[in-house]
Amino acid sequence: MIVIYGIKEQLNPIKAKLSDVIHQCMQSVLGMPEDKRAHRFIPLAKEDFYYPGGRTDSYTVIEINMMAGRQVETQKKLIKALFEEIEHQLAIAPVDIEIIIKEQAPYQWGFRGITGDEVKDLNYKVNV
């Protein structure tokens, strides 16, 4: 699951395109299938979104939650692809993007009535 935070006036107009860019990167780097998009947008009022100095109102936080198993180099490749594609396709500078990857053990994920360590029919690899 991916959660995206930003100032609502900046985030709302680009939600669909940003979702596409993020999912394209997830597909190309991690091999995620087309139908595994789980994005949650949290548009905030400017007064509710504090961010570091030197950033613009386009500052956006992308929090990626995933089952543990991806190699360090794979995760770094994903982060770099996101910076590059967001800048290229949405003209948001990397300084205005913050990406956090949070990994949880498969047994800490629950979906379709089972835990992630019990699932046998994923159509993508976790250990890449």
TrEMBL record:
InterPro entries: Tauto_MSAD, Tautomerase/MIF_sf. It comes from the Bacteria. The lineage of its organism: Bacteria, Pseudomonadati, Pseudomonadota, Gammaproteobacteria, Alteromonadales. This is Tautomerase family protein. Coiled coil: none annotated. Pfam families: Tautomerase_2 (PF14552). Transmembrane segments: none annotated.
